[in-house]
Design a protein that fits this description.
single chain
């Protein structure tokens, strides 16, 4: 557990450093979409605990608008991270292999106590493409960390 935390902290620090050095103009609409996505994710987590977003707003005195403002910096940094990592994937020709995909599906099957074939069917082509993309991004993070010079 501790090793995983250390690895994640290092990955985050390296990615953050690259993002901080990357100058890019992000369209407002793209940021808004990410903000909404983050609010939807939050609402889903609340629902799992038996709360609605409206109830949460009542308890905290927040509004959808204040929450959108609160998540904006995180939304921007998530988009920047994605764009930077996607650029690294392209620049370095990083690709996920079929073996990577198979290993990931096996992990998911174990996690959800399902058959591998059932997961593959559930994912379909679109899901497979998404996972391959995510795996390539994960490889880009490893690449960046491996090539980061300790200061």
């Amino acid at each position: 557990k501790k090793a995983v935390d250390v690895k994640n902290a290092k990955e985050n620090a390296v990615v953050e450093a690259i993002v901080a050095n990357a100058t890019m103009e992000i369209p407002e609409a793209m940021i808004e979409t990410q903000q909404r996505q983050m609010m939807d994710d939050f609402a889903q987590r609340l629902q799992m605990q038996g709360l609605s977003l409206d109830q949460y707003f009542q308890f905290t005195g927040m509004t959808a608008a204040t929450m959108m403002d609160q998540v904006k910096p995180q939304a921007e940094s998530r988009i920047k991270s994605s764009l930077v990592l996607e650029a690294i994937v392209k620049a370095e020709g990083i690709e996920a292999t079929e073996e990577d995909f198979t290993a990931e599906v096996a992990k998911m099957a174990e996690q959800y106590k399902m058959e591998v074939t059932a997961i593959e069917e559930m994912l379909g082509e679109g899901g497979k493409k998404q996972i391959m993309g995510d795996l390539a991004i994960a490889k880009a993070v490893d690449f960046v960390v491996a090539n980061a010079v300790e200061k």
